[in-house]
Amino acid sequence: METNVLTLDEVKEVLGVSYMTVYRYVKSRRLEGYQVGGVWHVSQEALRQFQEEKNQPKKRTSTSGDARRTTNYAEELERCLTAGDSSGSLEVVKRAVDAGADVERVYLEVLSPAMASIGASWAAGEIDIAIEHQASAIVTRLVGQLSPRPRGRRRGQVLIGGPTGERHALALAMLADLLRLQGWEVLDLGGDTPAASFVHTASKMTDLVAVGVSLTSVESEASAAATLTSLRAAIGPDVPVVLGGGAIRDEKHARDLGADHFAMGARGFIEFLDQRKKKSA
Asked: Residue 70: what pLDDT?
């Protein structure tokens, strides 16, 4: 073999990554390679260019027209999830990460849209509920593998959960991870949490900044309202109770149910917390 050409095994040693990671690089054409007799090869020059590009600071770009094609990844993931393809789903997420998408982008622009589309298909009677449950189980495992470690100085405590009857806990798990990335200490009660449990937990948190309640089912509006009333009576007016989720239409709807604020998705909740922190600084 030419001295200026490397195998994938040799490339992985240079980069300090696994063989499969290098394989994904060449398959996605992020790293230029070619096959000879079924064996992948990479030139020294291609590897040098790849390392230079990889070491350059990443620039945040808007979703529209993004070269990372998160929309395409979401569509690919949806197909894998609908087919019950766990390994294929993991491969799609890994390719999105290898292409430069951070955890926030993967959660909000790949996982969430894929699950929302599957949920809409089920609601329209196009797929069986078993497929939706299957997809949720796969994405739950993906979130477990992607969950980032908290970083930076703690900014305060946040309590989140879903009221009695609210079965969807996956969105809460992703929100908890995203909040931790922003430096918040998060206690996630999950779905189907009684009002008394919200109150008990909130009363034990000494640096509580806000409580987030997620509602995706209109059937649980009454229990959400009861939870908000109980929380407001227990924690007083200084700690805001924020309501969000697919079943909440707008700010008025949230306030009618007893919330102090409406959060439009995970980013809306994060922005609310950031603004509150700035005001108290």
From this structure: 64
Q: How far apart are CA 183 and CA 158, in angstroms?
A: 11
Q: What would the two tokens of residue 228 be?
A: 């908000």
Cα 38 from Cα 122, distance rounded (Å) = 42
Query: Domain holding 16: CATH number?
Result: 1.10.1660.10
Domain of residue 194, CATH code = 3.40.50.280
Q: Which domain holds residue 194?
A: 157-280
Residue 197 CB burial class (10 angstroms; 0-12, 13-18, ≥19)? middle
pLDDT value of position 63: 42
If asked whether residues 49 and 93 sit together in one domain, one would say: no
183 token code pair: 């430096």
The structure's pTM equals 0.72
User: Looking at beta carbons, which pairs linking 86-95 to residues 24 or more positions away fall under 8 Å?
Assistant: 86/138, 86/141, 89/138, 89/139, 89/142, 90/142, 90/145, 91/24, 93/142, 93/146, 94/24, 95/24, 95/28
Residue stretches of the chain with pLDDT short of 70: 1-3, 20, 24, 27-29, 37-38, 56-71, 150-153, 281
Of 40, 144, 41, 158, residue with least CA distance to 89: 144
**Could you tell me if 182 and 237 lie in one domain?**
yes
Query: How many Å is the maximal CA-CA distance in the chain?
Result: 75
